[in-house]
User: Fold this.
Amino acid sequence: MNKTVLINLVYLLASVLFIFGLKGLSHPRTAVRGNLTGAAGMLLAIVVTLLHQQIVGYGVIIAGILVGGIIGAWMAFAIRMTAMPQMVALLNGFGGGASVVVAGAELHKVLVESAALTTDVAIATAASGIIGAVTFWGSLVAYAKLEELMAGKAVLFPGQQVINALLGVGALLLAVLLVMNPGAAYLYWLLVLTASVLGVLLVIPIGGADMPVVISLLNSYSGLAAAATGFVLYNNVLIITGSLVGASGIILTRIMCKAMNRSLTHVLFGVLGPTSETATADEIYAGKVKAATPDEVALLFDTARRAVIVPGYGMAVAQAQHAVRDLTNLLESRGCEVEFAIHPVAGRMPGHMNVLLAEANIPYEKLKEMDEVNPTFEQTDVALVIGANDVVNPLARTDPHSPIAGMPILNVDYARTVVVVKRSLSPGFAGIPNPLFAADNTLMMFGDGKKALLELIAALKAA
Amino acid sequence: MEALIAAITIFVLAIFVGFEVITKVPPTLHTPLMSGSNAISGITVIGALLAAGAGDTGTSLLGFIAIVFATINVVGGFLVTHRMLEMFRKKD
Assistant:
């Protein structure tokens, strides 16, 4: 059999394995196998590529795989689960970066062979360069914001939109020039440079609360960049895989936007919600906030038949996951039903809270999505909110002028009693006060999440 | 031109496959989905291998950089996804 035919058939097989791999992710039981299926597809694709007649030396290849493999493995084992958004941001970035360089290498190779790029390949090369560079630099900025190497707040300056538009037009213009002069490699690198600046400026104005959207979107871009590179090389497995990942990122982006009631344009251009004319914190909280000791809260749980725990990123910051698990086990041993209510944007990326709770050995069956758990709050004796704020703020339902108006929230205020574990009354990402904290049926348990829970557990055991 | 049309056809159809498959992934697995899909988007490593193995120095230097990037993506992505998914599994 012809070698090229063999290679392409194996690429097809790899594509099929990737699709089966993603399909495996439709249930936690089959997910591990799915991931391994994808990895097997990758291995096959890599091995068969090494047979290609274009490859004349293996030294550089082995060196590259060793360096990348060691860095990748080290990152995968060293990363804390709380820092998973940073990890994914970096992976997105490297994916985009790889597309830029592969398209650049192909351009270089064609020019060395003193052939000329055909128009379609030139367009695809420009697309790889633009999308890949935006992904690479955008992801690095997202990483820096998440890792708090730079201010997480939205950085806005006058003329930002105009500069971005000019950079975008500039990159497109360079793309047109490249297509018209396919022999000019410098145009490609100039285009990459322009898109790099654009990538940085596009993510800088985006605030911390919108990070889940940005990571999802960059995830999609990294896929689209790979697909564009597929058009450069006329390689189907790249096109297929790139489109799969592109579609995945777009779906997640849409889910995140819906969960925050933000349009993608608002997120991308750093537009905040309607300016609030809501009551100030003092008006809402004055004299109405009731603080409770762990002993008082323990009494509540003593008679509770059903409790729902609402974890927020604050819980993870306080490293309180394991205390939450111990509390869950204790309550269940006393005949209280315990479930977890997970808001889609709990944590800092899609599904992040689920991973954090899974790490603490909390079974995924207990984690309920918003739509599933919301109707059950009226039959819930105690709703325990740990380190969550905006996602349980009733203003989203009641105040059309609030910046979070219309955002779907967890209706914890419908529970018989709400216990909020929180350091202080400070606002969440949205920067607004939360009337839940002053509600008649709410008790505030002030303090560090982990410490407060350990005290609660001790009080429950003593009772 | 025919090759281009064929490639575009594959692109569009694969997007539809992607939408079908990904919408079935439950929210509880969305983080592993992102890291896992990231790993497979490291398939650009194929292009990187071809470039790095080429005889020309400039091309193979760029290929080296691309291999490093893409391999981080592949190895890091699959391993970290595996780490997360194992945490979901051990309760069964």
